[in-house]
Specification:
Layout: E1 15-18, H1 22-32, E2 36-41, E3 45-49, E4 57-60, E5 80-83, H2 87-99, E6 106-109, E7 113-119, E8 125-131, H3 154-167
Parallel strand pairs: 1-4, 5-8
Antiparallel strand pairs: 2-3, 3-4, 6-7, 7-8
Length: 168
């Protein structure tokens, strides 16, 4: 997958996380979220990507093997966000997460996207979301975005994922 890069504006390329247990984190990001391991550096690091891209996520234990997550109220990463290509694919990921016993911390319809929130095994915030078509974004009278934070029907997303699985 080639990511288009605007002439003047950088895009987010990837995240790289310090983790306590590499295998546990690979199981989460590959097994539950659906990324593929593209490369490993011994037993201390792994890179994961989607769609043939070299890596969207780097994981390492170089400075963090066996470490505890930072306490609440400290600075750091609020969450990483992963964009799914469809509501059905997001619903399938949510079902895998719930089947694995990983609790959701929140779910919201933002008008521009639908999202669920959870924690990875190291306590890092994770958002899984699907975008709406830009033509459907809510807008104010002046044309600016009017994002919201409304209730999301998670059960409907999971059901859509199950229906898509049956049809494919």
């Amino acid at each position: 997958m080639t990511i288009p890069v605007p002439d003047q504006t950088p895009l987010v390329g990837h995240i790289h996380l310090k983790v306590a247990d590499l295998e546990r984190s690979i199981a989460f990001y590959a097994g539950l979220l659906g990324f593929e391991v593209t490369q490993r550096y011994g037993d201390g690091a792994a890179f994961l990507g989607a769609g043939g891209y070299h890596h969207h996520i780097g994981l390492n234990t170089w400075e963090s093997a066996g470490a505890m997550p930072p306490p609440a109220g400290h600075t750091g990463l609020y969450h990483s966000a992963f964009l799914y290509p469809s509501r059905a694919r997001l619903g399938q990921a949510i079902a895998r997460i719930m089947d694995a016993g990983v609790p959701l911390e929140g779910a919201a319809d933002h008008g521009v996207s639908e999202a669920v929130y959870l924690r990875d095994p190291d306590g890092n915030g994770v958002e899984l979301y699907v975008d709406r078509d830009a033509a459907d974004y809510p807008r104010g009278e002046d044309g600016t975005l009017a994002m919201k934070n409304s209730r999301l029907d998670v059960a409907a997303l999971i059901a859509e994922g199950k229906t898509a699985s049956v049809l494919s």
